[in-house]
Amino acid sequence: MKLTQLSRDYFSQVISLGNLVHGDNYLDSERLEQIYQMGLKKSLNASFVAIDESNQVIGFRLTYCAEQWPIDKWCTPADWPVDIEQMAYFKCIAIDPRAQGQGIGPKLLAASIEVLKKQGAKAGVAHLWQQSPGNGAVKYFTKSGGKLIKLHDDRWLENCINDGYECPICGNECHCQAAEMVIEFT
């Protein structure tokens, strides 16, 4: 397995893996292009893919650079440890179910953090899926230094209504909870 910065060459595989792990209509080509652009700053890309020996994507970490993402009602900047201008956003991660438990997630996160620091970020925030199997998302982020800021109910319900997202647990009416968590960079 090796890590490489996300490029358009991997878009179709990232979309397929994202929809497999997070639910139908989680990603599409237009949305992934927007995410890709928000991860570029100072000629550096903060989003990464993990690929196997046959050049197949087995994991990805999509990340927004500081000052290049919209702060919405699901964010609590007054409780963040750094200024808004220094806060990056960890959009999502997905690991192929066959490759989970091999330490790929922490490696992808570390790669993104190294780039974000070079871009000037001091911390990163994420909204983690509380109902992920075994609450793995929150556990993984906590082990990586993440601190809970706030819990948000119905975080992805609007995506179901507006974008046709289908939660793997709730279907087309997601009532899952998001844990807003922050990792400060050292």
From TrEMBL:
<dbReference type="InterPro" id="IPR016181">
    <property type="entry name" value="Acyl_CoA_acyltransferase"/>
</dbReference>
<feature type="domain" description="N-acetyltransferase">
    <location>
        <begin position="1"/>
        <end position="170"/>
    </location>
</feature>
<dbReference type="Pfam" id="PF00583">
    <property type="entry name" value="Acetyltransf_1"/>
</dbReference>
<dbReference type="InterPro" id="IPR000182">
    <property type="entry name" value="GNAT_dom"/>
</dbReference>
<protein>
    <submittedName>
        <fullName>GNAT family N-acetyltransferase</fullName>
    </submittedName>
</protein>
